[in-house]
Amino acid sequence: MARRHSADGVELNVTAMLDMAFQLLAFFILTFKPGPLEPAVSLHIPPARPVAPSTGADLGVIDMATFQPAGIDTLRIGLFSASGSLDRMTINGFPAETFDGLRNTMRRILADPASPVRQVVVQASEGLRYDEVMKVIGICSEEKLPKTGEHVRLSLVATADGSEAR
């Protein structure tokens, strides 16, 4: 087969250009590192030990302005749902009416340097919508421990029947 030359007699070496193109393609494919699709949430599983139960029913009427956890290092937040939407919310067994109320109670408890709280366990009903759980996780991730300045450790527990896990 006869070679064709351009009109001015210059011949292009296509082999070298293809070789360089494939080397560049291989370089970019091998060095590409995509970012995470969703932001990562650091979760810590609580230690295998019993948590002291505390409910508002057996303690009578409690003033939430002076409420402090009773000597345990775990703050329990309960999210209860029968239909997928958030029906009620509790903090250590006491009702929290709104997300702002939950945030204010957590800030008050964690602002005390003598507070023993080091971790938060969120107990959510299995059928609860994801966005409701993420609102509470967002509130918990904003808070820091007064002694160390670290974020509180956060654990999630799913309850099947909407009752509080013990």
Summed up:
With 166 residues, this protein is an alpha/beta fold. The chain has three helices and five strands; from the N terminus they run H-E-E-E-H-E-H-E.
- Count of DSSP strands: 5
Rounded to the nearest angstrom, the distance between the terminal CA atoms is 85 Å
Biggest sheet record: 5 strands, mixed
Structural class: alpha/beta
> Helix amount, in percent?
25-40%
Q: On the 0-100 scale, what is the average pLDDT? A: 74
The parts where pLDDT drops under 50 for at least 5 residues are 50-59
Rg from Cα: 29 Å
- The protein's oligomeric status is single chain
Number of H/I helices: 3
Indicate the proportion of strand residues: 15-25%
Inertia-based shape: elongated
Q: Give the strand line-up of the largest sheet.
A: 3-2-1-4-5
SSE order, as H and E?
Answer: HEEEHEHE
Highlighted features:
166 residues, alpha/beta, 3 helices, 27% helix, elongated
Description:
With 166 residues, the chain is an alpha/beta fold. It has a domain at 74-159. 27% of the residues lie in helices and 16% in strands. The protein has helices at 14-31, 99-111, 130-142; strands at residues 74-80, 88-91, 94-95, 119-125, 153-159. It has a 5-stranded mixed sheet with strand order 3-2-1-4-5, covered by helices on one side. A hairpin with a 7-residue loop joins strand 1 and strand 2 (88-91). The longest helix is centred in the N-terminal third of the chain and has 18 residues, at 14-31.
